[in-house]
Amino acid sequence: MVGRPPTASAAARQPAPVAAVSADARRLLQRVLAHERALGWTDRAVVGGLAALLPAWAARATGALPPEVAASVVAALDGYGALDPAARPAAVERALALLGPLERDEPRSRPQATARESAEPVRTARPERRPAPALADAAADEPAPSPTRRAGWAEPGADAPQADGPGLGAALAGLKGIGERTEALLGRLGLSTAGDLLWHLPQRYEDFTRASNADAIADGDDVAVEGIVTEVSAPGGRGRQPLRVVLRDDTGAVECRFFNQPWLAGRISRGQRIRAFGRATLWQGRPVLTSPEWEAVRPGSTAAPMVSAGRLLPVYPLTGGLAQKTVRRIMARHVPTLAALVGDPLPRALRAAEGLPLRAEALLAVHLPVDGEDARLGRERLAFDQVLLLQLWARRRRIARAAQAAPDLAQGAGAEARYLAGLPFTPTSAQTRAIAEIAADAATTSPMRRLLLGDVGSGKTAVAGAAIARAVGAGHQAALMAPTGILADQHGAEIARLLAPLGVAPFDPDAPAADGPCVARLVGALTARQKRAVAAAVSDGRVAVVVGTHALIERYVRFRSLGLVVIDEQHRFGVLQRAELAAATHGATEPHVLYMTATPIPRTLGLMLHADLDQSRLDELPPGRTPVKTAWLGPDERARAYAFVRGKVAAGEQAFVVFPLVEESASIDARAASAEHERLASGLLAGLRVGLLHGRMRPAEKDAVMAAFRAGDLDVLVATTVIEVGVDVPNASVMVIEGAERFGLAQLHQLRGRVGRGAAESACLLVAEAGSRTAARRLQALTRMNDGFALAELDLELRGPGDFFGVQQAGQTDALRLARGAALDTVARAARVAEGILAADPMLEAKAHDGLRAGVGALEEGVERA
Hints:
Layout: H1 8-13, H2 25-38, H3 50-60, H4 67-77, H5 88-99, H6 180-188, H7 194-198, E1 204-207, E2 222-233, E3 243-248, E4 253-258, E5 273-283, E6 286-290, E7 293-296, E8 312-315, H8 324-339, H9 348-354, H10 359-367, H11 372-402, H12 413-421, H13 429-442, E9 449-454, H14 460-473, E10 477-481, H15 485-499, E11 505-506, E12 518-522, H16 528-540, E13 543-548, E14 562-568, H17 575-582, E15 592-597, H18 603-609, E16 614-618, E17 629-633, H19 638-650, E18 654-658, H20 673-682, E19 690-693, H21 699-710, E20 716-719, E21 732-738, H22 745-752, E22 763-767, H23 773-784, H24 788-799, H25 824-840, H26 850-865
Parallel strand pairs: 4-6, 9-15, 9-16, 10-13, 10-14, 11-12, 12-13, 14-15, 17-22, 18-20, 18-21, 19-20, 21-22
Antiparallel strand pairs: 1-8, 2-3, 2-5, 3-4, 5-6, 5-7
């Protein structure tokens, strides 16, 4: 009965998804009620209705509100679902009045673009939506909302627990609405606890907040339509025929086609009013929605906002067998309860000073946004948290590093000068600048940690050679670690050639006697005896420079006096692997470390990913480098591509052909290198010498194939992305990339960089389906742009927070899900806040910083696991 609160025993019988006590129970219910009001008092703010939330909320409100207030709130909302819709607004307003002052939600305006969490922005339908229900005006004496938070959000200085509630560790099986099959599917996504579910954030949103008229729908629009079903045509005959449903509004008709869902013929009938939403295409002038989401409109509720189509629709990462509808239903049911259990790492004073909402409210806004601005601001708060933790972690590393000792390499300045004088070319201004920056770092007794960023062919190895010459000239050793044996061999030969004017000779492990300093290579392809010979020469100092792969960090390798470490393509190594090489010395000092990458990094990402490193950029190419001409061909033009390859080979040049997979897969529709190698060798490239290279081959096999290609004994090399980094064959002038739509922009640019390294005019042919709009933009951009840094910025825009560098990037795959989509001003803001925090509390020992200290500790653990 309305007005009578449930008894204690009745409340106890109500199942709660997670049992915990929240210090912010008042704000939780205010938020839910504000959402209920925005939905037009339909009892859909919480799956199961408000009645499903009240018992758990009443228990959670203990201590947060006076008992009589909590009881009155429950009484005001008791039986809410059974109330006449016209009486519901009064019940909601009565509960809100009992809970205290609340800034009212603004009427929803045209949604703004959300934060870049994904490859695509929020999609909007063209026609204006129907007017939302009118909302009461905010009280005149209430303050205007801060630009950094939404009306209806908590005051930024509100109290919040710093630690997560224990209920977030509950197994998914204990949550209502998650059966065994759904639990198993969620497990495939790495979700096993309630907390995992809460942090499974949408990739993007579909905007169906505006209902569209049938006659205003354009091709490609994301639309929500409502009308009367005038035709239901069940599939007949053989073949893959859809169920056709035609619905009509006052302006025209829309056809909905449902594939593999014949049972819908029993659920949708003529004369029924339904709402459908999805992406429209035009067929013979009529708009068509293919497999749209839909819902029936109950009699008497035609004016009610749509549950899904009346708001932003979150789009979650899925796995096979798991539907968006299922995940959305689960999130709508549990997020309001789970969000209340989330601790807030930011001190109250900091939130107030920065105008930041509570983390719990940000999570609600991301999962259940009122509009695009709501979602954007929620993401902004969560991204700020992650960037702040990264900044604190990086700056504390800098502080710790400043207390360590490193060798002073200033005495090697003469050797560096002789090295530069012996170069067969004049360094670019960018190279000269980077060399000077590295020299300044190496002339101090604090360990250098510098990242050298350079586009393909920008001359990073020559810059690293100058630093190596300085270290050797100062009487210390240098080590260069590369991710593959192919690249290590290439670097070893190049470094030996560049250092020859200094009297540094190649080391022969089969004849280990040496009269002067040597350059040695240490890779997996060497025999055990050869590795022991190299290690012995490194230990006693006969080897001044050693170039190798992971073999450099084996326990048997010890340096006499390691002064400099150069790590190429540093993102391909875990943090501990990099640290182990830096520690492989008998001395009491830390070596200077120079990291290199040919993957252009947008400045926003660079500030986050490498906040603990100083950075030098090679943003110009040496003279004489001819840009690679790039063309996008459809699959039906494949024969043209290989005819072009044959012409290049006839002219004495060589070619790469790259495939996305090693072997064919039943689950992935893409061509594979192994099978295509055989087809090409006996078909389009018959008569040519065609080799095969992929990552599953043994090191010795890969080395032999690359040696044959480099020597000109192969005309064409069919490969996977194993050739992406560092492979230098000047005679290779053409590259064909099959399935190019499956690669990211940065990777395509890296692959393209394997050609155009010689005097011949070079070309890159992208053989690809158009694929998605995002894939088309990538391919089009590559055909007109050669600037790697500009492409990297576009790649970040297109891919959003995707795993930009792969799972080994300092354990930051999870930590950067939102940080990678952060705007540059958010990064700058977090850097400023981090600097202020550490200036006052370098060790984060203050009680107010408990949450931040725990967050930094968790990040460090993730880094150590990388």
